[in-house]
Amino acid sequence: MSDTASGASIGDRTPQRASAIARLVASPAGKAVAIGGLLLLMLIPLRYISDIIQEREARQTEVVKEFQRSWGPAQSVIGPVLVVPYWTSPDKPRRYLHIAPSELKATVRLIPELRKRGLFHSVVYTADARLSGRFAMPQEVTAPEGAALLWPEAFVMLTASDLRALRSSARLDWNGRSLPWSDCPQISDGTCGGALFVMARPGLAGPPSQGEALPFETQVELRGTGAFRLAPLGQEVDLSLSAPWPTPSFVGAVLPVSSKVTGDAFEAAWHVSSNVATGHAVWSSNTLIGGQSWQQPEDQIGAELLEPVPTYQMVDRASKYAVLFLALSFLSYFLFELISGVSIHFVQYGLLGASIALCSLLLISLSEPLGFPQGYAISSALILSQASLYTAAVTRRLRLALMFFAILAALFGFLYVVLTLETYSMVVGSLALFAALSLIMAVTRHLDWSRAMPDLGARARETEAPSA
């Protein structure tokens, strides 16, 4: 008898417990918590999509490195520099005295192009560089440690990150004479190792006299990827850099004194005086090039050719807003239930979330072949149509579907504006979120969060009726 009573008691408590859970979920606060849990579950597919985007971005980086190996790296031009060998003693290795020009004027014209490998790409360029100036012997040019300078073996050196595009016809005009550029193994004493540079021998009989200026000029063609830089070696250095490219980034130790950037090209001019970037005009080294700080990119001057619309960077930034889109879409459905009394199941919330999460995957898939603006337009249009038509089928009310369409369209438009803004993107985004939160607070300010939602409350009462 007691067992029967105990079983009846347990059986009575089961529908009561189910009724309590139903009442909890039927309240706006309870359903809001349940929707929040569903939102957390949606982070799982978003994480997988984020990994796919990072994988594609890593492949893009690999393609850029492949172009750097096959076409040419970011170019750093050093020189011309006059190099004078000397001996400190016969039993010690040869050393080299490096003399920077007193004046150096560089006029560089970049011809960029976008090279593709499959769906991936890289910005490469051909550089036409004209270097001219003069060498005037500074007063500090003396034999170090009492050694004799070997002026007959002196040579003019020019180096860059990659000299494969240098034409064999390139020459150095030196004080009225035309001298060929020669590879290091053909003209030196075999001590150049793996250094990348060319040399020209002016055939000096002795040191130039004080005050004598030796003019020079050369024109070289180089190929590179992404950036062009010049080491500002000289007492007076002027660099003029131009290219038909709308999005340059001026980098290095000194910014240009003047620049002009238009919708399809840029021009920039630098002036560096008194060796402010290098610290000196004469230095000694045991290597032909000489390890100096100006060999580092941060101590040079030049520009990087940035992509007008960096596809993978924009896609990565857009994917970070997916959680916000999910939250606002779920919130819209939730408010539809509260205000209009429609019934939306959790499965329908989940299908809507899957549609919104798919947007990032569509975006990366379409942006690679079409570009980010076109990929964004098509992917947002597809998701907007799918989610809005699904909302019309779920709510069976055209007014709510049109309202959801307007909300989602405004979100996609707002996101594109934020992505295209660079300086004020955080300000605009923060103010927009503040305005959205204020609107939600205004809409729900009179809501009784403890009362049952109309449809779910009726279902809860129907569940209680048999037990009563």
Mean pLDDT over the residues: 81
Shape verdict: elongated
Proportion of strand residues: 25-35%
The total of helices stands at 11
| Whole-number total of structural domains | 2
Proportion of residues in helical segments: 40-55%
The radius of gyration computed from the alpha-carbon positions, rounded to a whole number of angstroms, is 35 Å
State the order of secondary-structure elements, H for helix, E for strand: HHHEEEEEEEEEHEEEEEEEEEHHHHHHH
Give the N-terminus to C-terminus distance in angstroms. Answer: 23 Å
Question: What is the CATH T-level topology of the largest domain?
Answer: Immunoglobulin-like
Strand-pairing-aware structural class: alpha+beta
Overall CATH architecture of the largest domain: Sandwich
Top CATH class of the largest domain? Mainly Beta
Q: Please count the beta strands (DSSP E, at least 2 residues each).
A: 18
> Unreliable runs, pLDDT <50, ≥5 residues?
186-191, 456-468
Major β-sheet annotation: 10 strands, mixed
